Amino acid sequence: MIKIHEVLLVEGKYDAARLHNLVDGTILTTDGFRVMKDRALQTMLQRLGRTQGLIILTDSDAAGFKIRHFVTGLVGAEHVLQAYVPAVAGKEARKEAPGREGLLGVEGISDDLILRGLQLALDSRQDPPREGQAPSPITYSDLYEWGISGTANSAARRRQLLRQLGLPPRLSKKELLQVLSTLYTRDSLSAYIASLEA
To answer: Which tens digit of pLDDT belongs to each residue from 51-62?
Structure first.
């Protein structure tokens, strides 16, 4: 079980129920897309973001990313930690059919993948660079050099790399850069990519 100070924000009640066994802390829901219309909920999330911070953990489908982007813009990226679960094909046991994209939601993802996503998000705020040892930042040029953006077959290479890193494949170029920069140093990621090609 992970103890968190921030408020953990998930999409729905089944996600929240699932996480109560994994997280010691406050768990709230966006109630799906309701967050985009409910002014009172928006105001509450803004206040909580400023006072405690938010960890956003949504599904890896298009709807989850739309909600993630909306809340991050609403609250301010400086008050938000991004937790991701990988895109895993399947359907939740309570559903008759898989979702539109055929991916498991947070409620269907294994405990270890959820805990890993949360821990990576928490580690991103606890590991500032040591004085005099600031790592080289990951840049758009690095993404190009590694063949995961702007080159022939870069989309396929990017999807493969994200799958191997346990990250969702639906990251924009900007999100990809932010996530990789949060989770890895340039040198460690470059070495990892080189090891895959060896």
So the answer is: 999 999 999 888
The burial class, CB within 10 Å (0-12 / 13-18 / 19+), for 104 is buried
pLDDT in tens, 75-123: 998 999 999 888 787 887 788 777 777 788 898 899 998 998 898 888 8
In a domain, 133, yes or no: no
Sequential DSSP letters for 122-188: HHHHH-PPPTT-PPPPP-HHHHHHTTSSSSTTHHHHHHHHHHHHT--S---HHHHHHHHHHH--HHH
User: Does residue 90 fall inside a structural domain?
Assistant: yes
Q: Which helix (H) or strand (E) holds 114?
A: helix 111-126
* β-strands 2-3, 23-24 pairing: parallel
Does 90 lie in the same domain as 21?
Answer: yes
Structural domain for 146, as ranges: 140-197
Same domain for 45 and 118, yes or no, is: yes
What is the model's pTM? 0.71
Structure confidence by residue, pLDDT tens digits, 168-186: 777 777 778 877 776 677 8
Distances (CA, A) of 193 to 39, 57, 65, 115, 143: 44, 26, 26, 24, 11
